[in-house]
Amino acid sequence: MGRVGVLLLNLGGPEQLGDVRPFLFNLFSDPEIIRLPFPWLQRPLAWLISTLRARKSQENYRQIGGGSPLRRITEKQAQALEQTLQQRGQDARVYIGMRYWHPFTEEAIAHIQRDQVEKLVILPLYPQFSISTSGSSFRLLEKIWQADTSLHQIEYTVVPSWYQRSGYLRAMADLIARQLDQCPHPQQAHIFFSAHGVPVSYVEEFGDPYQQEIEDCVRLIMQTLQRPNDHTLAYQSRVGPVEWLQPYTEDAIQDLGAAGVEDIVVVPISFVSEHIETLQEIDMEYREIAEAAGIHHFQRVPALDTHPIFIEDLTSLVIEALNSPQKRFSDVVHPPQKTFKLYPQERWTWGMTTTAEVWNGRLAMLGFLALLLELITGHGPLHAVGLL
Ligand SMILES: C=CC1=C(C)c2cc3[nH]c(cc4nc(cc5[nH]c(cc1n2)c(C)c5CCC(=O)O)C(CCC(=O)O)=C4C)c(C)c3C=C
Ligand SMILES: [Fe+2]
Predict the structure, then answer these.
(1) InterPro entries annotated for this entry (predicted)?
(2) Which of 40, 293, 333, 384 yields a CA-CA distance of 20 to 30 A from 312?
(3) Residue 168 backbone phi and psi in degrees, to 5
């Protein structure tokens, strides 16, 4: 076998407070994160949202020490995987490609080319597939491959999701069991799975399998855990005004408090490393909500990071992928879309029709954005004519 590489895909996170705004700009520039009808609006809107959100987001990163631990943890995972692959007789180099911050996916591909890798396993560090996470990275890679034909020499295969693997499930069950055993009444503690949310439209309009995979993942973890405890699944980290998957974590915690639950063990399940949404959102914000709701005992299950069972399982996954039929980007980036007709009327007719209302709404949104931009930048037509 020629030179073997493993490309670990991850989201990336700001390493210092000054990185927060450009990191957010990269994130909101991604059409898989904000889906707009007009592509030309993507970057101005990303600039606007990242500018408006930066201060609040920076404050959150400040509370966890001034930056995301994601790069450091992903590097440790890569190192552990490389070592375990060596021990199992597989000489492979492990690369890291982040979607929105350093080391960027493009940098990883440059290293892979420099090292003349011939066989590559592309492995997202997201157990479940979403078009907003693994899907976005696969789509970027597909574009990179289309732009550079020298990459076609590399025999690659992608792993779309892997939450059903027994090693992953056993490692999760092990971490949950340890937290349960520290509770005052281990059998009565409520196991609270908190998954990262996505907008409902991703699932209902764009065919994202994420919700179904998350539900299946929770079922399999509970089956592996073999404990009698009650459990709940809720979704966290909502951003913006649209509807996201429900129940929302904050509401579900309050409902449990109102129902008299006193002990909860929170399990983050969309991600395998500590990051801002475990260290700040769960450990600080949701803990406060739980305490106010009368939940006296609040524990959080740590992220897998370099849990030995997990790393062993990733190692087996890589070896199996190398010996399985190839999965191409085109097999995984286009989830089956539900046929969804946004507006029933296809031809323009005059009057206050549905189409006219839709266009009124779109133009009002554009006008509002232009005004907001002008208020923030201090430049624009209203300033020019002296109205602002
Ligand atoms: C606005 C839409 C967003 C979607 C959809 C989304 C999906 C999604 N994200 C993760 C995992 C992570 N997200 C992280 C940061 C982050 N994500 C969003 C927005 C969406 N995410 C924002 C605005 C941010 C920045 C932080 C903030 O301002 O709140 C991170 C990085 C965390 C870090 O430590 O830096 C991760 C990881 C998943 C798994 C997911 C969908 C399944
Ligand atoms: Fe996110």
Answers:
(1) Ferrochelatase, Ferrochelatase_AS, Ferrochelatase_C, Ferrochelatase_N
(2) 333
(3) -60, -45
Helix, strand or coil, per DSSP, at residue 121 = strand
Residue owning tokens 């479940």: 128
Between the CA of 213 and the centroid of ligand 2 the distance, in Å, is 17
| Residue whose C-alpha is closest to residue 56's, from 197, 246, 239, 196 | 239
| Residue 280 beta carbon below 6 angstroms from any ligand 1 atom | no
The answer as to whether 338 is a domain residue is: no
The tens digit of pLDDT for each residue in 98-119 reads 999 999 999 999 999 999 999 9
For the beta carbon of residue 179, count every other beta carbon within 10 angstroms: 18
Kindly report the CATH number assigned to the domain that includes residue 133: 3.40.50.1400
295 pLDDT band, cuts 50/70/90, is very high
Where in the sequence is the domain holding 100, given as residue range(s)? Answer: 4-163+307-333
Q: How far apart are CA 129 and CA 122, in angstroms?
A: 13
| In the predicted structure, residue 359 carries a pLDDT above the cut 90 | no
Say yes or no: CB of residue 73 within 6 Å of ligand 1: no
Question: Can you give the pTM of this predicted structure?
Answer: 0.88
Q: Which ligand is nearest to the CA of 34?
A: 1
Between 27-36, 149-158, 242-251, the lowest mean confidence (pLDDT) is in 27-36
Residue 296 in marked binding region: no
Question: Which one of the ligands is nearest to 57 CA?
Answer: 1
226 with 170: CB under 8 angstroms?
no
Nearest atom within ligand 1 for CA of residue 128: 42
